[in-house]
Amino acid sequence: MLKNLLQNQQNLKARGIYSCTGIYFFKSAICPSFDAIFHRRGVKNRIDNYRGIGYNKDKCRRGKMVMSRRRMHQKDAIILAGLLGGVLLLLFSPLWGPMIWRAPASFSEPVAVSGQATKKEEKKETKEEQKQLPIVNEEGMTLAERINTPKGYTREEAEKGSLAEFLRKYSLKKSTGVVKTWDGKKAKDITNTPAVFKLPLAKENLQWAGGSVIRLYTEYLWENQMYDKISFQFSDGFAAQYQKWREGFRIRKDATGAIWVNGGELDKTRKNLEAYLHCVLTYTSVSTLEKETKKIKKDKLQTGDLFLDVATGDAAVVVDVCVNENGEKAFLLGKGGKPAKQFHLLTNPAHEEDPWYYESELQYPFVTSEGEFKKGSLRHPTYLD
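^ that's the sequence the OP posted. Answer follows.
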């Protein structure tokens, strides 16, 4: 029955008719079946009446009455079917709607115009942005882990046992942005550093900016057993050699200068190293460091080089270097300070979220987050050669 109904609907659609009553549909669909049933039975009765026995008026009259009642039943069935058809049309109209009319292509989704990114392109760009790592990784516990290189830059290869390798693997304190002074107080002039090194800090107010440089070089050379290179000049030109101190000699200083005196036996302990540094930090400064360095140009810059300002007593160390495909460098700076404070990484005031200083930014006066340096302040320490 439904099959006939749908067939009739398709025929009507082909002729441009889209709205009809349920009665028409079901009459067309159901009447043939009712007509077939009742008509065949009526014809059969009439044939029986005319066959063999002869014509009987009473039977004929009764046959007409039966046929009349059957036609009435047939009409009732058609009306009932029409009502049912109307109900079904209402129920299934949401499904038949798309069959009656479809939107032309001009009403489809809008096409992106020139200069306007499609959703697919925007999604692709978002994925690329997610792949780009942030410069500062607060979870990193070494310099190489904490600070990622900028886009397009890679770290210069570090030789085994070099200062560059030593600093990249150097342990950092948990990221808090806080720098403490020698007496455990919070440094008020530093609000947010990306990294604080676990570099030992003397218990007295001796390890200032220049002292932090001396401490850093000493720790590197001592760990790599290059004891003969641990030597720093006093203001009077006296060379305080750790190797001689290690062998048991001690330094005595008076108004005439400093001299070596025999003080005991060979001592290789860490405690003895700290005693040596206490003596050195007492009689050295940025001005004495300058005497053991030489000026260099910015294209020669490498890990371990210094920015020195004798007038202010300030000093900063290049702790890492990276380079792009054009050979342009970027570098990180670390320093201590006055009063003596933890050795930490500087931020770049030009872009605080990125602590790297770029070669193109190295103009004088060279401004950092904790001071500035004049022309000629970039120097290379000779005892690292």
